[in-house]
Write a structure and sequence with these properties.
This protein is mainly beta. Helix content is about 5%, strand content about 55%. The chain contains one helix and seven strands.
Length: about 140
């Protein structure tokens, strides 16, 4: 049977990334991005929805993300869906879907400083860093 699990997202960080190290010493960074989706309703009105996605990054890529990303930065994430299942303290089963990033590209306005945005409209994007380290993923 054929299966395929691939996710591509562009969004903005909702908070600063969090870096931790697992028991094997592997860096693990987590962050959440907000992704906007505009669509037309039946009555021809444009509606916008925001989806929030939890991203998990491993290894050298995790350390780089933690060093260079911050709240509000725009990123392109390529990865796969992963479901975590556990029982909470009351015995209820909980589930959470994360995106395990294989590749993270940093995208930002040409000027990150508010004071220097007067020079342009701030909408120009430049690729800051492209990281693709699939060997660091522990599974």
């Amino acid at each position: 049977m054929i299966s395929y699990n691939k996710v591509l997202l562009i969004g903005n960080l909702t908070a600063n990334p969090q870096l931790k190290y697992n028991q094997n010493g592997l860096a693990v960074t987590t962050f959440t991005i907000a992704v906007n989706n505009k669509f037309m309703t039946k009555d021809q009105n444009i509606k916008e929805e925001v989806g929030f996605f939890d991203i998990v990054v491993f290894g050298k890529q995790a350390e780089t993300c933690n060093s260079y990303l911050s709240k509000g930065r725009t990123v392109f994430v390529e990865g796969r869906l992963s479901m975590n299942v556990w029982e909470d303290s009351t015995g209820q089963k909980k589930r959470k879907i994360n995106i395990i990033a294989n590749r993270v590209q940093f995208i930002s306005p040409k000027s990150q400083q508010i004071a220097s945005q007067d020079e342009g409209n701030g909408n120009d994007l430049e690729l800051v860093e492209d990281i693709n380290i699939e060997d660091d993923i522990p599974f």
